[in-house]
Amino acid sequence: MILLYGIPGDGPLELIADTLEAKGMDFFLVNPRQFKLLDFIFFYDGKHFGGEISIGADSYPLDKITGIYNRGFDFELVPEAKDLFETDTFSMYQKMFNLFNQWIEVSEARVINRASAMASNASKPYQLSLIKSFFKIPDSLVTNSIRSLNSFREKYREIIYKSSSSIRSVVKSIEHGDTGMDFHSIRNCATLFQERLVGTNYRVHVIDKKLFAIKAEAETVDYRYSSREGKETILEEIKLPASISKKCLALANALGLAFAGIDLFLTDNSEWYCFEVNPSPGFSYFENNTGVPIADAVVEYLAGVKS
Amino acid sequence: MLLNSDDLPGRWLFRSLKNAGTMDIKLISAEELVYAPVFDCGYQNGKAFFSVELASGFVLSDQNVTATINRISHLPLQHVERFKTEDREYVSAELISNFAFLFSILPHIVFNNTSPSGFCGRVRSDIEWLLLAKKAGFETSAFVYENKITDKLSPVKNDALKNLLYFNGRCYGDNAVLSSSAVTICKEFGEISAENIIEIWFYEDEKRLHFHSATVHPSFHNAGTEFIDDLNSLL
Questions:
Q1: Which H or E element spans position A252?
Q2: A contacts of B83 (beta carbons < 8 Å)
Q3: Do B60 and B140 fall into the same domain?
Q4: Could you report the predicted ipTM of this complex, rounded to two decimals?
Q5: Are both B79 and B141 inside the same structural domain?
Q6: Which of A17, A260, B82, B200 has the fewest CB atoms within 10 Å around its CB?
């Protein structure tokens, strides 16, 4: 039995559910928005864990769950829970979800992905320190000082800025000599700046020992948002050099991620850089645009099929 | 030495190290770091660097720090309340991310390493600690969570609790009340946790050792002078 944990309508979750359905595999969904229908029993007898999840009239023993696809998030962010803030009912459900997440962390099931493994992405510069054993990383500066920022800008033709945390942001660029931008707000919150490299983006999805590489060609700084600028991103499945594939597999393994979305960049000088490893990849964008069977590989992993 | 301003055990540690002869040690609070006029850190050619100028004018940098004791468990984020509602979550996440990075690149960290899941060691849930305790050889207490209520099936009286400090492969505590099996199991617990420092709380009952709790943010209760001397020798 495979457990999907997340919100219906979420692209990756929907693709996994469709694939499970097409393969006729048993699965069920824990939807945090329907928390009022949920019951969670969890026990430890001094040696083993046990329990069950109930959703309305249906019950699922925890020891029958062999795979978990985790797209869950903090109970505080569930829209239907907002009306309950600071009530005993809110605390009760928050505790239930905390324990549910703790169970996922220690479950013997195959999990994509455990919270402990996903944590490195909460700080991109921290994660770069793990990445740099495998790939080159861009020169970076986290600063709250205009003077330091100006010194950094002097060194490069163009720089970019983006979020340092896992909160998604659109990557923006600043060209050398551009005086039209006001960066005084960095004094309130140090911001991550990086040199802008010249070359091509690649997204590599690693699922256990399988790997899918997609080249993303775009004129924009952040290829994910080309359409907002009226431009196009061309996605194409490619085969990576064997040495790079090997490094991608090793990197995902080192981070403890059974499923990872690795952002690579090949410079015009033929140097491979890595910007980030996404532990909960929004892979539906890539699968829907290229037909690369990522969901199939994820489902096979969750079902225990050896790759 | 970095600490939160309300960290009394941290201040005790600082005084003890000073008294033990650690000369060149400086105390820096989380507030001084968060409100630093200049905060720079990053990578140049793959090598990490940092330079943080405090309001006092002192500059903490990779050029002048030789060893780090990090006791900061959380950041003071009261000032974030002044920001627009829609910006607060973002600013808080960015600050935590930036400091997780800064703390992780400080030189010669003698306590636990920083990660985004804990500034001074990985913050584990009770269940993760319990699993570690079981692996180390502790007896572990049963519990039931049902209908959104947790019951510990064998509650413990606090006055029966003992504690031991695991640091750098050794255990420190009140030898008069600790059995040799307690020291052996706690040492095993520390080693499999992969943390450098942990405080472990437990109780003994009919020669069996029952796990109660553990923390990567020790109180140094009963740590003793031997611990201070050993720590001092590492700085």
A1: helix A242-254
A2: 188
A3: no
A4: 0.91
A5: no
A6: B82
